[in-house]
Every structure is written in structure tokens, then in C-alpha cells.
Automatic annotation (TrEMBL):
EC number(s) per entry: 2.6.1.62
Site for Participates in the substrate recognition with KAPA and in a stacking interaction with the adenine ring of SAM, residues: C36
Residues with N6-(pyridoxal phosphate)lysine modification: K301
Originating organism: Dyella acidisoli
Name recorded for this polypeptide: Adenosylmethionine-8-amino-7-oxononanoate aminotransferase
Chief location: cytoplasm
Family: Belongs to the class-III pyridoxal-phosphate-dependent aminotransferase family. BioA subfamily.
UniProt entry tagged with the keyword Manganese: no
Keywords carried by this UniProt record: Aminotransferase, Biotin biosynthesis, Cytoplasm, Pyridoxal phosphate, S-adenosyl-L-methionine, Transferase
Pathway membership, UniProt: Cofactor biosynthesis; biotin biosynthesis; 7,8-diaminononanoate from 8-amino-7-oxononanoate (SAM route): step 1/1
Secretion signal, residue range per the UniProt entry: none
């Protein structure tokens, strides 16, 4: 059984006014339906009202502080209420807040597109803006299909995805995802992807190196492409880390091999860098570690430093040219969002890129990465830890019931939730993926703050694995 949350004082025996947190939580639960949540849980899991952010910290209505170990769903790069981004947003709000992006444009979107083309892999020359990560995936899927249709290959209607993949929760994005928790309920509404085995290192054979796992999985991908290339539009992957699928990690050689296979069999390669882009894996973009350029690169989350929703799909001139024709040809890509190219979001993104330009972010992250690895290393010896893995500023600890066999804890025991509740009690936001405790802090986190995160997580793990 879960222990009750002990971070808030019990006011049930008192008649005076509720504390500020409890009062806001009560108002929230009267009307708001939260994402990715069984709302019944909030009968015993606290709703935490955050009123202020400060660097890597979140502050609730009663002044309690929580170190944001997951960058508020992987979005925040340079700290909450970052003064540079806030100042840029304030200036933009006084100038232009929004304008229709069909037939109109504005300088901020133009500069952002230019800057994105400059920093992404060579050959990505066109930028299509959307509102969020799932929307970017929808754009890439539709654009890939529509490209082949415009080229006279309407038989290409399917997509190849990796087992354990997650690309979002709109219907198209969910169609190329393979996490049963999200997909199962809506399966009758979804396209059926062709699934290729993930090159996930954790699932490798005993004694296999990461490179050997990648090579073996590439052979399986080759066999799939031989059978299905004529009906497949694209292969979609999260480069290096399958994030919501359990922080599964794989070797960069899989990406370089996959690029070659996609070229050989004439299917597109879609790189979902929504979570792994902007320095998360150690390079600006994960694809750089394999020295490849995809046909589509989807960006969001850290694109605005975690301040406003915005996404971008970068693609090639060849892709663009397949849609460029007289209107009467019916080849236009008629996809839109009301807030496409929103000036406020674009300005936040520009200032985020300016911080990367002006400060040694990636170099500093390498120091933080090494410190995080050092602090997590002792957990490898824990009797209920099957794996500790890391790619740059993303690290994960896999909890199991039995280390020797890697037997998982029954999901209904919700051991990860115990770690989450322990974290709240001790000033840390840790939101596990099932029984996988992961770390993805903002880049402004200090080594002392990393120590706090790991210490809290380690104590939470010790508490969670007790029968």
C-alpha cells in the first residue's frame, strides 16, 4: 500500500482557513482535468500549486521549494523565469503578439528559420512551424505521405517505427507509437505501423556490445524494408534515446546504418528530436553523433527554453519542390495551425538560441554530465536496480523486483509513484516512468543540486522497494 503523503500538514482537525496550497488545490480539482493523470489519484496524491519559478527550482503557494529534476516535462533548459528570455518576451509583447501566418510573415519567424537552418544538419533547408511536439509529428507524417502521393506513389501509406517508441498522443503521432499505456485504448482509431525491434541496449543479448546490438537490429530493419519498402513512406525514430518509452538508449551507429538503409530502399527518415534536441544528449542535436541528416527533423520542448509552446519541422529542398506547383495541380500542403509562427514563441526561441551562442552551454553540460554519472554509479550495486544508463543530460535508473532475472515489479504496486511522493516530501520533482527513475534537469542546475536530486532519489528508491 502507498503511504499517505506527508509533505503537507494535516488540517482535518482544524477549523481555520486552509493553507494556500490546499486552497488552490481545492479550487483546481473543482474544475480542471489534468493530462496523463487518473484524477482519482488526487484523493491521496497531492496537487502541488506552483506560483513561482527560480532557476532550477519551483516554489509552491506555501513557499516550499522543489528542484525540477525533469525540466517540467523536458522543456526547460535555462531555468524558470529566465531573465533573458523574459525580457525578450516583454519586448516582443509590446511590438507584435500574433499575426496570421498564411500570406503574412514577420521578422522574428524569418530569423528563427534562418538560425535553425544554420545549426541543424546540412540539407535541412525548409522550416514548417507548428504548435507542439505532437503537431510536429503530424506534419512530418502527412508531409512524407503527401510527398510520395505527389510523386505518383500513392501506394505508400504506412510507417515503420521502433518497438517501445513514443511520438505523441494525437492520433497520427499515437499511430506510430508503441507504448501500450497510451495506445491500447485508442487502437481502433489508429493506423497500424510496421514495428521494427528497438536497438535498445538494455534488451541486448548477454555479452553483446552496443554496436553489436545496433548491427543486429539493422539487419532486421533491412529485412523489413525488403518486404515493405513499396508501401512504406518513412521510418520514424527518436535518435539515441526513446524517452517516454522508458528512457531506452542505443548506439549512434544504428542511426548511420538506418540512414543508409532508408536511402537504399527509398523511404524517408523522420528524426523525432523533440525531447533529445538542443543539447540533451551531449550535442546540439542527437543526429550529429551519427553524422547524419534526416529527411525530416521535428523540434519542440527546449526550442523555446521551456517558456511557450512551439515546434518546427525541418526538411529538404527536394521535399519542398514536390509540393511547388500551380494551385490547380492540387499539390499544396494544406495543413495549418492558428498560432503557426507565433511571434512571442518565436522570440523566446531566438533568445534560447542566443544563449547557446553566447554561453558555453554544451561544454558546461559535459561537466554536469560527468558529475551526474559519478553520483549515480553506486546505484548500480543496489539489489533492486537492473540498470543505470545515461546519454548526456538524460539518465535513468531501472527498478526491478529481482536483479538477477530482471523481473519487474508488478505495475499495480506503483513503486515509481512512491519515489515521486518521497521526492515531493524532500524538495525534488522526480516523476518516474513506471518503475524507471530518470533525471533530465535544466542546464542551470549546479553540482550541489545534482547531489540533492540523486540523494533524494536514492532514499526514495530505498523506501519504494520495501515490500
Amino acid at each position: 500500500m502507498l503511504e499517505p503523503y506527508r509533505g503537507y500538514p494535516d488540517h482535518s482537525h482544524m477549523n481555520h482557513q486552509l493553507d494556500a496550497n490546499a486552497a488552490l488545490a481545492q479550487r483546481d480539482l473543482r474544475h480542471i482535468w489534468h493530462p496523463c493523470t487518473q484524477m482519482h489519484d488526487h484523493e491521496y496524491v497531492p496537487m502541488v500549486p506552483i506560483v513561482r519559478g527560480e532557476g532550477a527550482w519551483l516554489i509552491d503557494a506555501d513557499g516550499r521549494r522543489y528542484l525540477d529534476g525533469i525540466s517540467s516535462w523536458w522543456t526547460n533548459l535555462f531555468g524558470h523565469a529566465n531573465p533573458r528570455i523574459a525580457a525578450a518576451l516583454a519586448e516582443q509583447a509590446r511590438t507584435l503578439e500574433h499575426v496570421i501566418f498564411a500570406g503574412f510573415t514577420h521578422p522574428v519567424a524569418i530569423e528563427l528559420a534562418e538560425r535553425l537552418v544554420d545549426i541543424t544538419p546540412q540539407g535541412l533547408e525548409k522550416v514548417f512551424f507548428a504548435d507542439n511536439g505532437s503537431a510536429a509529428i503530424e506534419v512530418a507524417l502527412k508531409m512524407s505521405f503527401h510527398y510520395w502521393l505527389n510523386q505518383g506513389h500513392g501506394e505508400k501509406t504506412r510507417f515503420i517505427a521502433l518497438t517501445g517508441s513514443y511520438h505523441g498522443e494525437t492520433l497520427g503521432a499515437l499511430s506510430v507509437s508503441d507504448v501500450a499505456l497510451y495506445r491500447k485504448t485508442y487502437a481502433p482509431l489508429l493506423l497500424t505501423p510496421i514495428l521494427a525491434p528497438s536497438p535498445d541496449i538494455y534488451e541486448g543479448e548477454p555479452g553483446e556490445s552496443p554496436e553489436q546490438i545496433a548491427a543486429r537490429r539493422l539487419e532486421t530493419m533491412r529485412e523489413l524494408l525488403e518486404r515493405h519498402a513499396q508501401e512504406a513512406c518513412a521510418v520514424i525514430v527518436e535518435p539515441l534515446v526513446q524517452c517516454a518509452g522508458g528512457m531506452r538508449m542505443y548506439h549512434p551507429s544504428y542511426l548511420s546504418g538506418l540512414r543508409a538503409l532508408c536511402d537504399q530502399y527509398h523511404v524517408h527518415l523522420i528524426a523525432d528530436e523533440i525531447a533529445v534536441g538542443f543539447g540533451r544528449t551531449g550535442t546540439m542535436f542527437a543526429c550529429e553523433q551519427a553524422a547524419i541528416a534526416p529527411d525530416f527533423m521535428c523540434l519542440s520542448k527546449g526550442l523555446t527554453g521551456g517558456t511557450l509552446p512551439l515546434s518546427a519541422v525541418l526538411t529538404t529542398q527536394r521535399m519542398y519542390d514536390a509540393f511547388y506547383a500551380e494551385y490547380s495541380a492540387g499539390k499544396a500542403f494544406l495543413h495549418s495551425h492558428s498560432y503557426t509562427g507565433n511571434p512571442l514563441a518565436c522570440r523566446a526561441a531566438l533568445e534560447t538560441l542566443n544563449i547557446f551562442r553566447d554561453e558555453p552551454v554544451l561544454e558546461h553540460n559535459r561537466t554536469l554530465t560527468a558529475h551526474l554519472a559519478k553520483r549515480l554509479a553506486p546505484l548500480r550495486e543496489h539489489p533492486n536496480v537492473a540498470d543505470v544508463r545515461q546519454h548526456g543530460m538524460i539518465a535513468a535508473v531501472e527498478l526491478v523486483a529481482d536483479k538477477a532475472t530482471r523481473r519487474a515489479f508488478p505495475s499495480e504496486e506503483r513503486r515509481g509513484l512512491r519515489v515521486y511522493l518521497h521526492g515531493l516530501e524532500h524538495g525534488a520533482l522526480l516523476r518516474p516512468l513506471g518503475n524507471i527513475i530518470y533525471f533530465m534537469p535544466p542546464y542551470v542546475v549546479s553540482e550541489d543540486e545534482i547531489d540533492h536530486l540523486v540523494d533524494v532519489a536514492s532514499a526514495g528508491i530505498a523506501r519504494a522497494v520495501v515490500a
